[in-house]
């Protein structure tokens, strides 16, 4: 993993400006051109394509560094998928939260089928480092089949209870809204890979808001957002 100096080495703009633009774009309902105008008022001349490139370059790095401090989610998961339009076509964002509303994982896929659901469950199990005690799904049978098959790949998979409940899944459906509300002002995503990276950044900001990271060792309690980001990236 690159240190913070090498991460921003050779960039025309200071790292504080880059971090600020990336963070504001992912967190607030701003377009690239909104950010260009806001930065111009602060005496910084940018183009919208520059910010776009920063998103694609730095979101994976930021996510990697923040994940070093991630808290493990609870053992009762609510799993559901929502729709995201990319270049005029609907794609599917698989997401899960625990019973406290903490994000478990997410995965953008082109299709909504057994293979896509299996890919999501494998990713979630791997990233969490353990199997959940319960998985709550909606009535879509492909998701039930995928969960059973992936759990069958683990010795302790039979201990996980799979259930179907529309009422209990209201929690994940409400959580989708925070992601969809941010995606709306983006006026359409054009490429699947770029969309995946952008959504990963939005999910990261959503997890930060939920307090899903242990940052005590960095001694950044009650400090401002820029100080917090610099501390995490430098760690």
UniProtKB/TrEMBL annotation:
Write down the Pfam families for this protein, in alphabetical order: DDE_Tnp_IS240 (PF13610)
Q: Which GO terms describe its molecular function?
A: DNA binding
The DDE domain extends over 76-212
What organism is listed for this UniProt entry? Methylocella tundrae
Q: What is the protein's given name? A: Transposase
For this UniProt entry, which segments traverse the membrane?
A: none
What is a biological process (GO) this protein takes part in? Answer: transposition
UniProt xrefs under InterPro entries: DDE_dom (IPR032874), IS_Transposase (IPR052183), RNaseH-like_sf (IPR012337), Transpos_IS6 (IPR047930)
């Amino acid at each position: 993993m690159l240190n913070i100096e090498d991460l921003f080495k050779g960039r025309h703009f200071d790292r504080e400006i880059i971090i600020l633009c990336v963070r504001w774009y992912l967190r607030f309902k701003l377009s690239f051109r909104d950010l260009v105008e806001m930065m111009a008022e602060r005496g910084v001349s940018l183009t919208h394509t520059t910010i776009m490139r920063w998103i694609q370059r730095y979101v994976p790095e930021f996510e990697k560094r923040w994940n070093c401090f991630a808290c493990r989610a609870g053992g009762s998961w609510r799993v559901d998928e929502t729709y995201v339009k990319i270049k005029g076509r609907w794609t599917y964002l698989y997401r899960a939260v625990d019973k406290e509303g903490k994000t478990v994982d997410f995965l953008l896929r082109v299709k909504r089928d057994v293979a896509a659901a299996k890919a999501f469950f494998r990713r979630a199990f791997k990233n969490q480092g353990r199997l959940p005690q319960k998985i709550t799904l909606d009535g879509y049978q492909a998701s039930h089949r995928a969960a059973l098959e992936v759990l069958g790949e683990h010795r302790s998979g039979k201990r996980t209870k799979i259930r179907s409940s529309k009422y209990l899944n209201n929690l994940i459906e409400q959580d989708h809204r925070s992601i969809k509300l941010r995606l709306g002002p983006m006026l359409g995503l054009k490429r699947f890979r770029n969309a995946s990276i952008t959504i990963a950044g939005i999910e990261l900001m959503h997890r930060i808001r939920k307090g899903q990271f242990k940052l005590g060792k960095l001694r950044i309690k009650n400090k401002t957002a820029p100080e917090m980001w610099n501390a995490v990236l430098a760690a």
